[in-house]
Amino acid sequence: MATTEVERRRGQLAALSIAAVVIIVGVPLWWRTTETYRAWLPVSQIQELSKLQLHLSADVEVVFARGTVTPEQQKKVPLTQTQDEEHIVDEDTALRYRYETRYRTATIMEEDALNQPTAAEADLSLHTLSESPCGSLVVYVIPESSTLLLEDTDVYVGQRRTALLRIGAQMRVGRTLEQLLAHLEPRIQQVLHVMSFSHTDITAALSDRVRLSPGNKESIADSMRAFKSSPGYEITFSLLNPDPKSHRLYWDIEGAVQTYIQPLLTKLSPVANFSIDSQTLHYAMLGVNPRFDSSRNAYTLIADSLAHVINPVEARLGSNAASSNPVLNFLLYVPDAHHSPLYIHDHKKQEVPSNAFHSPRWGGIMVYNVDGFYGPEAVFPVDININMAKVMGVFLAQLRLLLGVQSSTPPPGFVVAPCGSTGLADWELDRLMWSRSVENVATATTTITSLAQLLDQIGNIVINDNIAEQVSSALTSLQLAVAELEAGNLGFALQYSKEAILASERAFFDPSLLHLLYFPDDQKFAIYIPLFLPMCVPILLSLLKIVSEARQKRREKQAKKD
Amino acid sequence: MAAYRCYYPAVLLILCSFSVFVVADTEDATLINGQDVTALNSPQTASKTAAQTAEQPAVEERQWEATASAAAADDQDRTPDTPAPGAEVQPVVPPVLPEPKDSFQEELVFRPLHSGDIYASFQFRTLWETDFMRGNKVSHYRLFPKSLGQVISKFSVRELHISFTQGYWRTMQWGQPFLPSPPGAELWVWFQDSVTDVDGTWKELTNVLSGIFCASLNFIDSTNTVEPSASFKPLGIGNETDPRFLRYATLPREIVCTENLTPWKKLLPCGSKAGLAVLLKSEKLFHSSFHSQTVHIRPVCQDWQCKTTSWELRQTLNVVFDLHTSGQSKREWSLFKMFSRTLTEACPLASSSKIYIDITDNPQGEQFELTPATTLLSQAVVLGDRRTFSVYDLTQQATFGNTRSLNLLIRWKSSEGDMLRPLLHAERYVAGYGLQTGEIHTLMYNNHPYRSFPVLLLDSVPWYLRLYIHTLTVTSKGKDNNPSFIHYQPSKDRVRPHLLEMLVQLPPNSVTEVTVQFERALLKWTEYTPDPNHGFYVGSSVISSLVPSIVAMDTNSTRERPLFSSFFPCKEESSYFVRVYTEPLLVNLPTPDFSMPYNVICLTCTVVAVGYGSLYNLLTRSFQIEEPSPGLAKRIANVIRKMRGVPPL
């Protein structure tokens, strides 16, 4: 029986070696050849992004005019103070605001400028003296006796980045500098909240990242009104003429855009690119039949029905063929002759004076009644030239709202200078840039982290080198943006945050990520089974047999010993 | 080992069922991928669908606020300090309006055909005096549609011609159409010479257009795009004829339906609310033998010296209503019967709005009767022939009569009369048998009794039909006819199609036959269409020619003429331009059995498993000598001995 034993051993060895070859050569070969290409992603850095700590810092200069500080106090200035404010928004996001305040006395030139007769002129000549950089502020403290400000105003907020602050009556000469500063500090804080970033703006900008606790309805409406930050916007003005048989309308949109809209957009050009076009749509109806109000002899649109006005019009508006940026629509609706005049009523059944309304993140609609331009016996069609100044006033206000230029009501005692021909003060632009940079940073971080999560969860997705490149460039831009925010360089921060958002979106929406997305494992195994099953089952069976034989042998041995 | 043999068939069974699932699922997956890619390529469509899906909830979700306080406050503080030029001057009644720089014309032509069908052709023209070419941004639109204007200025398009056609125009029965178009979709574009990456721009443009017209123009890629050197000259002004800036593509498979008509109607200034466009009801238009809608954009001269140029957007819709589908034996047509609508007004924006009815063959009213009758007649030279038309001017109130609606009625009296055979006509077919080779025959008929004229033949054949260009023969009247010019661009597999252009002289009263042999290529299995056994389409051949005219043509392109007779510019008086499209071809390619890959997997795995199994068996089995089993007789004997109680043998 020795020969059979040798045979058995040989068989066992053969089975074992085949199993070894399969495990050592076959399995790695299969693994390598069916692997999907996944470029390396900076995962640890992306995970760091999930904890976001934003530092925002703004430079504030406080300039004392003659007559506000005594000569002894004057010796102690210039001095610098920093104030830090910490806010924890949620467990992953924290904010820290830093105001670096420098105190100094006014130069002779500035004194001259402050001696101008009115605040507006002083503001202008202060601006020509020195241009303060983006994101910074200068507060001039002027003596109580100054005639620059009217009786009941304490603070004048200029068109640029300056404010004039009247020192309080109780702060007569003779107090110490510390007392003076302690008196000034809360008021300077107030000025800062108006002119620079405020906590509510910044938290609203973070809404992409942080689920805010539902506040009151008003604040939700406020936060939902403005468009999301985007590298570009398309502005479309549409003139809706439902009744071309009666009204031949003419609007000088080209001139109006040049006069009213373009200055604002030029000012906003660091924030985004804008393109403007206009069209005239004939036979475009509103979705609601206006109700006739016999008491006023006019047709009315009620606030509740406004939601249904746009949908049928929207089909005619057409999307922009040339770009995929969000579109801001501004519609000027001239009601047909049989439904004129048409007025919009608000919830209190009061006529809306501007006869216009806007839809958050969509655009605005204005109703322009033309029945006053012709008498009852007019011969149709009537030629009508639309008064663009009236129309553009409303559209400009809506545009500011939709772009997120905050026009919060100033605290009592404040006078905000009317913004000039540009339609936007420098400090308003700064505020917008603060919140846009923070919003961009928040959006880019969420995009990158969710992309990383997605790629981590679905192993089938091929990650090409270009995606890895985009991700890492987005990361670098993000880090730069955060660093610039901390350093207070607002312009650069916005620039980098825009780059970050572009790169992250490009990575996220790359079509190559879709290739193997829908290739589930069960299908793969359906292909593998015909080869794997007949190969593996004999190997497994013989391995089992070998093991059981070995076990039996050991048992026998033990039995013998016993 | 025995166990292993037993389960193997079972495994195979499971496998087969698996493979069925796999086939189904992977096809799904590729489809989904395809859709996503197209969506990404054309943000237009993606956003559109997104908008559509989002629209419903948006109604409730949106918050509507009156801009009351803000705007009012704004008015107060802004209007005073803004330098408002028009603010002080209240609009006076009547205001002096600047002359609009754009105009719109609409027109409908009926031509009773000899087959008893009726041909209706809508023509809409928007002229806009502006300059897209000179870099300055055009962004304020009035009558010209904004979407097309944006396309022109973004992609630096000089000329754009799109047609969507359902059905084939039967030249021999119906004569020449006013504006020819091939079955399916056709797109040809001249770019401005400032475009550097023409191919990239072309790709983007087709994606955007496919979004605008809801058509599958995004399937146009390098494999079906050609650059014809001579057949498609610019129709507008401009003498740049470098074919590098021209792209031409057809999609013969494209099905045209309502979803293409709706965006087309939206481009009209009056939409489908007023004017002739109210007749465009899709359920009637698509219940016809032939339907073709086109959009042509080109720069044209405003005046005879061409001092000012303007852009022309011409939208045409041609439809042939079938006599027999209406199911009535009475030969009678009316606007209401054809379109289920009557006309009540002209589009108020149109400077002219007219209906023409071709009554050339009916001078004394012996063939058909027209009600309401009109005294207004007009003559126009169309396709080398002087035709007479009854004209209804919709801008005149008198046209509509007392009923305030116009319902034209054509009642046939006799069906006699024969049509002049069209001078140029062409047809094409595939010959040969089997799935390996074949032959394309193109026949061109010159029916002119005594004049010969040259024609340009353009053939664009997909790469999977490999043309043997050495077999190209051109014969007329049994003799070889040497083309005076041949431009042939061979195909590259999966990159570009064959392009064959030649200039052939057609002798009078003859048939010229062009044949070329081809071999059918085997495609990769993912390159087949979802229904490969239906066959593969090959686009129509295009035959362009200057046909000798019987009457003198009008060479002044700016003179006021009916729209349908003024599309192709006319360079000389003695001939007119005609383009003829042949039928598209449907070619069968060798089609594999698509479950084959899985069968192959199963088969090879079986072979491998059998080989491997026996090898494994040999290697691992222990061999031992076995006693030979006793013979049958011996066993029986042993059984008997056992019963007897005797020890076995």
UniProtKB/TrEMBL annotation, chain A:
Its domain of life? Eukaryota
A cellular component term, taken from the record's GO annotations: GPI-anchor transamidase complex
- Membrane topology field: Multi-pass membrane protein
Q: Name one GO biological process term.
A: GPI anchor biosynthetic process
Ranges annotated as spanning the membrane: 12-31, 525-547
What does the record give as its pathway? Glycolipid biosynthesis; glycosylphosphatidylinositol-anchor biosynthesis
Under the heading Pfam families, the entry gives:
PIG-S
Localization recorded for this chain is:
Endoplasmic reticulum membrane
Q: Which UniProt keywords apply?
A: Endoplasmic reticulum, Glycoprotein, GPI-anchor biosynthesis, Membrane, Transmembrane, Transmembrane helix
Entry's InterPro entries? PtdIno-glycan_biosynth_class_S
Q: Which family does it belong to?
A: Belongs to the PIGS family.
* PANTHER family attached to this UniProt entry: GPI TRANSAMIDASE COMPONENT PIG-S
Task: Write the protein's name.
Answer: GPI transamidase component PIG-S
Which organism is the protein's source?
Scomber scombrus
UniProtKB/TrEMBL annotation, chain B:
- Fetch the InterPro entries from UniProt: PIG-T
Which organism does this sequence originate in? Scomber scombrus (Atlantic mackerel)
Residues of the region (Disordered) are 66-96
Q: What is this protein called?
A: GPI transamidase component PIG-T
Q: Which residues form the signal peptide?
A: 1-24
Lineage of the species this protein comes from: Eukaryota, Metazoa, Chordata, Craniata, Vertebrata
GO cellular component terms, semicolon-separated: GPI-anchor transamidase complex
Write out the GO biological process terms. attachment of GPI anchor to protein
**Keyword line:** Signal
Please give the coiled-coil regions recorded for this protein. Answer: none
